[in-house]
Write a structure and sequence with these properties.
Radius of gyration: 31 Å
Number of strands: 0
Helix content: 55-70%
Amino acid sequence: MSNARGRPRTRSQPATVPDEVLEQTHKTPREFTSEEYRRGMAEMQVAAENWMLAIEKHHHSIGCLDDFRVRLSTFLLRGDAERWWETARQRFGDRGLTWAEFQQMFNVAYCPAWVQEQKTYEFIDLVQGSKTVAQYEAEFTALARYAPELVSTEAKKASKFQRGPRADIRHAFGGVQCKEYAVAVQRAYVVERDRNEWRAIQASKKGAGSSFNGKKGKWAAGQGHSQGKEPLCC
């Protein structure tokens, strides 16, 4: 067949990935496989989301164009994920997928809505409990993306964070609510540090007191024996 100008019509070929882009991709391989996460869907979803974030970051860092993103990303799929892709791509025939289409398919397969909903409720119910402030902050950061409406402003994010620490840390805030998230986190760290130092001092004093009382008791016991009296109770 020919086009309107009489030139032979050729079948569109997929864009060729430039050598320099391939070289950068091989230097920073970020493979994804779902097989190691069979113990739990939630763990696999977190791994899938982290992989997608890393891939997008890598694409931006090497200046990868949209035409090449799908090919470079699917090259890094392994195991079950690679077999999923070989099946999923057949739905599109010879037409290449856009990056947005690939992301949507990937999210449906590895980031199902019910797991995201579960993570949302985990964030809503998140409290410090027995965790340190650092551990609480890390979990807060990891789960916040599942409930963006709760942290859509700096004030909302700070307010949600300040509701989670243990009672002793919250009481130390004195009812003053920070409007900035970074300030709220810093205050929690400071309160935890001060309280840990106070506990360490009290424990040191208690230990020193016990040692002194023990020596005093031994001395009194010796005096009692030497005088023919019963040892004094300490």
